[in-house]
Amino acid sequence: MLMNTHEARLDALRKELKKRGLDGFVVPISDEHMSEYVGGYAQRLAWLTGFGGSAGSAAVLADKAAVFVDGRYTLQVREQVDGRLFEYQSVPATSLAAWLGENAREGAKIGFDPWLHGKPWVDAATTALKARGASLVPVEGNPIDAIWSDQPAPSLAPALVHPTDLAGQSSEAKRSDVAEWLTARGLDAAVVSALDGVAWLLNIRGSDVERTPVALSFVLAHADGTAELFIAEDKVTPELRAHLGNAVTVRTREAFVPQLQALAGKKVAVDPERSVQAVFAALSGAGAQVVELTDPTVLAKAVKNPAEQAGQRAAQARDGAAIARFLHWLSIEAPKGGLDELSAAARLQAFREETGLLRDLSFDTISAAGPHAASPHYKVDEHSNIPIAPSSVYLVDSGGQYADGTTDITRTVWIGPGEPSAEHKDRFTRVLKGHIMLALAVFPKGTVGSQLDTLARYALWQAGVDYAHGTGHGVGSFLSVHEGPQRIAKAQGGQAGTGQELLPGMILSNEPGYYKAGDFGIRTENLVLVERRTIAGQEGEYYGFETLTFAPIDHTLVDDSLLTREEVDWWNAYHARVWALLSPQLDGAALAWLKDACAPL
């Protein structure tokens, strides 16, 4: 039976829970790999609630339910989720575990799927419920799957070989590095659960998850340099087997738990941030000694080698030309009226596809007109789609997946006719000043992203405004557009100097913003590469950023009087580089437009 309303789905879930003797259930956006973006089969939260964001969760009790999102989705959740069915809860002001501790009745049994939650969350929720006299209960088989009659099946698309010339290092060399890491710590094996970790370690890619070129699989990496890949048989091609060689044993996904259990008596590294509770339970239950450590592929993957850096530059130059063509097209068509958020996003994708090398978008394009731009992670669909009005601000945050690199760029433009207001220009220019200050940053070895975050916010703070998201995230190499462990954001819990230090070869976004609810939003984003810097008389090692992203920034929205000489010099040098890289790829009216767009201040 198809359930076409969220009320009917919620009712059906409560009946299923009652049948199982459960008093509640927790629904995250997650899959067996703790992925940020998940396949259609794992979109359980969207199916149950209607929420289409990429981060959130819900808790369902017999008499009430709540949906939990962070500041990025405060507006979106209210547009998409029925407030009569679900309370809106804001993270981190509260947490799902805390809400359960306050709302579950004494003696309640709250179900959770151990294949969708990490151990830290399970520990926190168990503690919160115990104080209430309630308990957290792992379920066999997800109850939503039992009632979701038209649930998509997991993808069976073939896994693909990622060429060594693009990867810059063979899988054998990467496995050898992991083996050294294990041996140095007296460990026998490591579980690699994160899909991008598996992809990076074995130099494979796939098309199982929209926007992220990965194949659904797990890896057990051993201290002798061998590995076991757990993957659906239909996904394994002769080319893949030949690429993996004799040192990688290919097994079915169903063999994963038995092989974990076969590690009884062994010391096994498991990453609590990237492996689900079920992995810990299988190992511990079999008598393996679990050692909680960050997955050894994480940092190695984040530091891009010369081949990956060169690929990223090539991808960015190609992508920048597609962006320039789009911005030229937008400058002609949008002032006429008749464009909307969806049609603009479709045209931008078409420009990228015309390169002939686009594999996928790197995330769903944020095509945000007017008030929608005030929602930083807005996602346009047929229901939310609105016209791009003349005489307004339009924000587009987008990216492409190419075999040689992953792109992510945001541009905010003024749609004519007429002129932007003084407020528009002030806020845009303060965001720009923050972007430039971060782009120009020079910092000593050992610096973490939270120590640089203030630079991007300084000009906004002087006007008494701020933004509620991080300033920069790591980016993969034909992998996830959001990649850790590096990031640029406010220190968590007031702890300055915590987090991953920035290392040469890491790629991050530089994306300060400003958002006025119900009115407009502004963000300017480029990707940057951490590189070594030489300073006369320096004491110690110093780093800075190489800008990777090149496309015009809209001068119409700039208040030149707010810019310093150094900022004007940055603008002029940046746009000279945009012209040098993109002009050979354009012609005709688009080339003439680019010349005007790159004119010095």
Folded structure, characterized:
It is built from 19 helices and 28 strands. The radius of gyration is 25 Å and the shape is globular. Helices cover 34% and strands 20% of the residues. The strands form eight sheets. Strands 4-3-2-1-5-6 form a six-stranded mixed beta sheet, with helices on both faces. The chain is of the alpha+beta class and 601 residues long. A hairpin with an 8-residue loop joins strand 27 (526-533) and strand 28 (542-547). This is Aminopeptidase P family protein.
Envelope shape: globular
CATH fold title of the largest domain: Creatine Amidinohydrolase
Class derived from helix and strand content: alpha+beta
Radius of gyration: 25 Å
How far apart are the first and last residues' alpha carbons, in Å? 63 Å
**SS summary, helix count:** 19
Unreliable segments (pLDDT under 50, ≥5 consecutive)?
none
CATH architecture of the largest domain: Alpha-Beta Complex
Determine the CATH superfamily of the largest domain.
Creatinase/methionine aminopeptidase superfamily
Overall number of domains:
3
The average pLDDT is 96
Beta strand %: 15-25%
Number of strands: 28
Tell me, what is the CATH class of the largest domain? Alpha Beta
Approximate helicity band: 25-40%
Side-by-side strand order of the widest sheet: 4-3-2-1-5-6
Largest sheet: 6 strands, mixed
What's the arrangement of secondary structure elements?
Layout: H1 6-19, E1 24-28, H2 44-49, E2 57-61, E3 65-69, H3 74-80, E4 87-90, H4 96-103, E5 109-112, H5 119-130, E6 135-138, H6 143-147, E7 160-161, H7 164-167, H8 171-184, E8 189-192, H9 195-202, E9 204-205, E10 217-222, E11 227-231, H10 238-244, E12 248-251, H11 256-261, E13 267-270, H12 277-286, E14 289-292, H13 297-302, H14 306-333, H15 341-353, E15 358-361, E16 366-369, E17 392-398, E18 400-402, E19 405-406, E20 409-415, H16 422-439, E21 442-444, H17 449-461, E22 472-474, E23 483-488, E24 507-510, E25 513-516, E26 520-523, E27 526-533, E28 542-547, H18 565-582, H19 588-597
Parallel strand pairs: 1-5, 3-4, 5-6, 8-13, 11-12, 13-14
Antiparallel strand pairs: 1-2, 2-3, 7-9, 8-10, 10-11, 15-18, 16-17, 17-20, 18-19, 21-28, 22-23, 24-27, 25-26, 27-28
Helix pairs in contact: 4-5, 14-15, 14-19, 16-17
